[in-house]
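Q: Here's a chain of 134 amino acids. Please give me its 3D structure as tokens.
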Amino acid sequence: MKRSLYLALAATSLFGCAAEPLQLVNERVYQAEWIGGKPRIHHSHPTLILGQDGRAYGNAGCNHWFAAYHLQADQLSFAQIGSTRKMCPPPLMEQEQRFLEELSRVQRWDFSSQEQLRLWPAEGKPMRLESGHD
């Protein structure tokens, strides 16, 4: 009996358990790292939060943004995106424009092998986001 238990434990430690597939989590902060094929400006923090009420929101780097979203399996889309209208330095404003444009083009999502959330448009490179804490 001891030997079969030992073998079972050894096999489990060698092969491990199958990892749970990563899922989008409501109310979790996802921070953009790559937007439209370009890295985010180091000191900016564009974010995405998917609310449980069907509304998405976050910071676009300068202004706060908000929109309704639709999520079904790996399909994700955002309705008309609104934002506050504060002015910031031109590089931040340009990045914010790219961020909001990229969000409006999202059609599906997945996670990379590095566990980055990727938001994919119909064509082109995905926006890549890091998962923050709940």
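Q: Can you summarize the key feature?
A: Residues 54 and 69 are 6 Å apart (CA to CA).
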